Amino acid sequence: MTVTSFHKMHGLGNDFVIIDARLAAVEMTAPRAHAIADRRTGIGCDQLILLEPSNTADVRMRIFNADGGEVEACGNATRCVATLLGTPAQIETKGGILETRPQDNSATVFLNPPAFEWEFIPLAMPMDTMDMPVGWETLERPMAVNVGNPHVIFFVPDTDSVDLERLGPIIETDPLFPEKINVNVATIVDSQNIRLRVWERGVGLTLACGTGACATAVAAIRSGQAASPVTIHLPGGELRIGWQEGGPIEMEGPSTHVFTGQADWSAFG
Ligand SMILES: N[C@@H](CCC[C@H](N)C(=O)O)C(=O)O
């Protein structure tokens, strides 16, 4: 039995189990990550984060969704890891190397410039990602942006009137998205404020999604519906996003440490 410590943290209610495996390796598999994330029988979280040594940055951050799938990016967890590290750092993810700056109980993360080409979202067929000629019931003509991970954004008159719990999984698993997709429904309040709800790939409805906020701000700025910086209002709170065409995305928002615990990971399969 090998007992190691972990941190429970959250960014605007999007919560994480963070295991620091830089000194003592922890073997992680999809079934094990899924078991740890289970809120009834495991520790419970939206994403499991594994910190490992990196050859190219200060630390390597691996991200597992609650369903066990390993993914490229997680904005809220990156702010939490930046806060844990305590000093400006470069964090290696599957989606690229990210610059981070911690402040008091918050952090700024610089995501790499977004991609808009259909093959980089990725989509199953060529189309204009700024005005996609597709729809699912009342949700029509989304934009698609890859900010390290893939997102579609639907701008709607009222995010609260969308049945995202029902439509989210249908869109997430549509064959148009060969790697599945994170589904954002957004309402423009004014040129610097947007309301957002997110159905996260591999998780479901969450209180906040950092990369969803970045993708939505980028889509709104690029289509002339908003001007940088933009405040994104999520069910769990607010994030501030800055972006200029061709540049990195700057995300600033809270990161909260909940508790430090101990676990024997082999007990999770
Ligand atoms: N909660 C996240 C996004 C986590 C990954 C996402 N579900 C995916 O599958 O790409 C965030 O704060 O960005």
From TrEMBL:
Pinpoint the site Could be important to modulate the pK values of the two catalytic cysteine residues.
151, 200
Q: What class of enzyme is it?
A: isomerase
Active site annotation, chain numbering: 74 (proton donor), 74, 209 (proton acceptor)
Where substrate is bound, by residue?
Answer: 14, 47, 65, 75-76, 149, 182, 200-201, 210-211
Enzymatic reactions = (2S,6S)-2,6-diaminopimelate = meso-2,6-diaminopimelate
Q: What is its EC number?
A: 5.1.1.7
Annotated localization: Cytoplasm
> Would you identify the family this protein belongs to, as annotated?
Belongs to the diaminopimelate epimerase family.
Quaternary assembly: Homodimer.
GO terms under biological process: lysine biosynthetic process via diaminopimelate
Q: Which organism is it from?
A: Sphingorhabdus pulchriflava
Q: Which domain of life is it from?
A: Bacteria
What's the protein called, per UniProt? Diaminopimelate epimerase
User: What's this chain's function?
Assistant: Catalyzes the stereoinversion of LL-2,6-diaminopimelate (L,L-DAP) to meso-diaminopimelate (meso-DAP), a precursor of L-lysine and an essential component of the bacterial peptidoglycan.
Q: Which UniProt keyword terms apply here?
A: Amino-acid biosynthesis, Cytoplasm, Isomerase, Lysine biosynthesis
- One of the record's GO cellular component terms: cytosol
- Gene that encodes it: dapF
Q: Kindly give the Pfam families that the UniProt entry links to this protein.
A: DAP_epimerase
